[in-house]
Design brief:
- By secondary structure, the chain is an alpha+beta fold.
- It has one domain.
- It has five helices and seven strands.
- The strands form two sheets. Strands 1, 2, 3, 4 and 5 form a five-stranded antiparallel β-sheet that branches. A two-stranded antiparallel ribbon has the order 6-7.
- α1 packs across α3.
């Protein structure tokens, strides 16, 4: 699976606390399923819950949520456009010890192509965002620049 590592890299680039302390972010993949059909190809889709935990997070949650949404827009776009998914696919909690927990429902396509006697596995990404999608590269919270990153 590719998305957990890609998300970790994106958050480490864009969240100042994680730039300085990447070890504060832990990720656990839980409740996964494999969705396959009886089509001639063995291609399938992973569907899983990814739990992110940031320990001792005493900043505004927006400093994590906004970069997370920017990543989701490019890597899980159906979450942004589907009303039923908007209500349940991203959840969060903050406990008394300032631990920020975020749960995501992700999916990931796996393409399996037979080439002679061998099977080749690849992970096709999501379709590219529209060319006119001017994604911002700075995050301001309460009038203060919190983070800058590259797409």
């Amino acid at each position: 699976m590719q998305k957990p590592q890609q998300l970790r890299a994106a958050l480490n680039r864009s969240v100042p606390l994680l730039q300085q302390n990447p070890e504060r972010l832990s990720m656990t993949l839980t409740a996964g399923t494999v969705v396959a059909t009886s089509a001639p190809s063995l291609s399938f889709e992973y569907r899983y819950r990814l739990e992110l935990v940031i320990a001792s997070y005493q900043q505004a949650p927006e400093a994590v949520i906004v970069p997370l949404l920017a990543w989701l827009r490019d890597n899980q776009p159906e979450m942004m456009g589907n009303v039923s998914r908007q209500r349940s696919d991203v959840t969060f909690a903050i406990d008394a010890s300032d631990t920020l927990s975020i749960t995501l429902q992700l999916s990931e396509r796996v393409q399996v192509i037979q080439s002679g006697e061998a099977l080749q596995v690849s992970f096709p990404g999501e379709p590219a965002p529209p060319a006119d999608d001017a994604a911002p590269l700075q995050l301001w919270v309460h009038g203060a620049l919190v983070s800058e990153w590259q797409r």
